[in-house]
Amino acid sequence: MKLKLEFDEYVVGNARTSGSEFPWDSHQTRKTLLSPLLSQPLLTASYFSHSHSFVYRSMAELRHSSSLGSRASNSPMKRDALAAGDSSPLIPDNLLADDDEHHRHSSKDRDRHMCSFFTDDPRVSPHNSRISLLFTFLFLLVAFLSLFTIFHKLNAPYLCKKDGIVLHCPHVKESPSLWENPFSSTTSWKPCAERRDGVLSELPPENETNGYIFIHAEGGLNQQRIAICNAVAVAKIMNATLILPVLKQDQIWKDQTKFEDIFDVDHFIDYLKYDVRIVRDIPKWFTDKSELFTSIRRTVKNIPKYAPAQFYIDNVLPRIKEKKIMALKPFVDRLGYDNVPAEINKLRCRVNYHALKFLPDIEQMADLLASRMRNRTGSSNPYMALHLRFEKGMVGLSFCDFVGTREEKAKMAEYRKKEWPRRYKNGSHLWQLALQKRKEGRCPLEPGEVAVILRAMGYPKETQIYVASGQVYGGQNRMAPLRNMFPNLVTKEELATKEELDGFRKHVTSLAALDFLVCLKSDVFVMTHGGNFAKLIIGARRYMGHRLKSIKPDKGLMSKSFGDPYMGWATFVEDVVVTHQTRTGLPEETFPNYDLWENPLTPCMCRA
Questions:
Q1: pTM given for the model
Q2: Which of 195, 204, 186 is nearest to 588 (CA)?
Q3: What's the DSSP call for residue 247?
Q4: Burial letters 472-491, b for 16+ CB under 10 A, else e
Q5: What b-and-e string marks burial along 392-422, b requiring 16 or more CB atoms within 10 Å of the CB?
Q6: Mean pLDDT per 10-residue run, the chain (608 residues)?
């Protein structure tokens, strides 16, 4: 370091004492400057090598600082002196001119180097030119892709584009579990409500039971099914004999079907012979059968909804013992779930999943329809069953607001006022009620909404869909968005010939039974609104092992998504997929007041 400082002082000192002539680049000058230092004994060849480079660097720095000092001076005196022709104390005038020329050439060289990316200058290396062109191309490509992405995001469709009555939704990639639940999630439970053969019956003879009970199974086919299961359970609770239930004519269904027109009576009685005494008809010794249907003395009418088992023991059994035959009326949902013994709930599952079987001709026709659904493409294909609840009666009863013309809304208001006058009142509160129900997810999904949800889940246009539905409110115009997005959409009337269905038309419940079985056998079942049909299907598919996918849309979340004007398609798809990962019929723990028919897990299934 000491030698370096001495050398700096020596160089600068010689520069200042050498007069006006200071030819830095001459060989003689370099030799003159270096010769005194070379005589020093401490200098070695290594040091000379380093010092040699240092000399050039020192001279360059000195030249640069001198030129800057002469060019960039801001002092008025110095500017005046320069204007008068004063020269630098270190650098002669001719060298200043050469230096300015050098800087001009350097600036041109720099400009030429910067422009070499975009010029064909032959002095530029061909290799460097190719690299420059490559980098330029990559830069333009990235810029184009970025602009395209930004443009795509700014112009992303709000869910789906509507073209008249046709919806156009973006494509979604199919997930691996599109047609069945993951195997790992479906192997922990197995059904265990079936009859145990070989067990000795502990039932007393018919004439030694506490008496007879008789019920009217009201409503549609599935409400009647639940009533039959509850009747068997109540007979078991009171140790009574059950008279084969009567399927009562419903005001909506207007069907006079008998039990034996739908269900296999022999199988029903035989399968439950170890649990309950069941007889086909009222005993012969009871002569006045009309009294059983009309007399108040023979009817128990004060049974509350979802009554506990103890209520029947305390309030109904004494009257049966007294009168010997009693009718329970009404009997819709007159037995609870978590307030009865576990064995009683298991018995209800035994009735529902094992004892109640449809007649063989109904089973065979349903098998034929399911087979046709699986072979519509010429080879084996999965199919979806859609329970679409959008009939006029359902729309009216929901008191929800739906898209439509003013004329349609006016007609629906008149219909509601006529059918449900107490709920309608003057109609002023209905708009707020409709908004609240939609926000809570209590409104039926429209066909167009169903189409958007299914597309977001990843189901392609080619999906084969079996529709179980009544007459859709709004007709073909209302169905158009769903049918255009999923053209392979059929009903039983389109899948079977008129002659094949004629044998089932005399009983409306027979046609409903066909829908029930085809939906039960499907690869994927989708419900759109609550009801006994959907929950019985979902419960039965769970009882069969949870592998069959049963989708229950989160209508509350869907309502918020459909009403969000800023939600794009990608966000909507993510919400739908994530939300419905656990709404596909997988095992769920039961909870207080749970619905046994939709989730038979705890009482009717055992750990595998």
A1: 0.71
A2: 186
A3: E
A4: bbbeeebbbbbbbbbebbbe
A5: bebbbebbbbbebeeeeeeebeeebeeeeee
A6: 41 42 40 39 38 40 39 40 39 44 48 45 61 82 72 54 65 74 78 77 78 91 95 96 86 71 96 94 85 82 93 96 92 91 94 97 97 90 95 92 86 92 83 86 92 93 94 91 94 94 89 96 94 94 90 89 82 90 84 82 86
